[in-house]
Specification:
Blueprint lengths: L12 H6 L3 E5 L2 E14 L2 E15 L3 H10 L6 E9 L8 E4 L7 E7 L10 H18 L13
Parallel strand pairs: 3-4, 4-6
Antiparallel strand pairs: 1-2, 2-3, 5-6
Length: 154
């Protein structure tokens, strides 16, 4: 269920790279991915470190992909959270979640989002990057320099 609405997002690798995402594909899904590092410090230095993985997915099969993620997604050592934003034609009221080993090995959270809607607060940052990516792509197609001054000849 690939939405043409989001097709432009796969063509702006320089945008995704600039904000720390890389292309990602697995399990019949495609989009971008980033890993965020959290460090717990103390007087003697770092005492703990863990990771959170974020995914923005534009190529998926809707509910079929959600069921597959909840069934097949595996936790990874030292990764506490896997947040998956599925871009589509509807925005869910709530996200769905699965824990690994009662949460001791982390969890995966899935949320469906339609650009232009108000996102769930747990996914607002990822929704923001989607909105900015769509704007970046639009400006690039119009021949403007994304992030630059649109006033030409001044």
């Amino acid at each position: 269920m690939f939405s043409e609405r989001y097709a432009c997002l796969k063509k702006i690798d320089e945008y995704w790279e600039e904000i720390g995402f890389t292309p990602w594909a697995s399990l019949g899904l495609a989009g971008v991915y980033r890993r965020v590092t959290f460090r717990k410090g103390a007087l003697l230095g770092e005492v703990a470190r863990y990771y959170a993985d974020d995914y923005i997915i534009w190529d998926h099969r809707g509910e079929e992909s959600v069921r597959m993620i909840l069934r097949d997604w595996k936790g990874e050592p030292e990764v506490m959270a896997h947040r998956i934003l599925l871009l589509g034609e509807e925005t869910w009221q709530k996200h769905r979640q699965k824990t690994f080993l009662w949460g001791f090995r982390g969890w995966v959270e899935i949320y469906s989002f339609r650009s232009g809607d108000k996102p769930h607060k747990r996914f607002a940052d990822l929704a923001y990057w989607v909105s900015m990516g769509l704007e970046y792509s639009k400006k690039a197609r119009e021949g403007n320099q994304p992030g630059g001054d649109d006033r030409q000849g001044i």
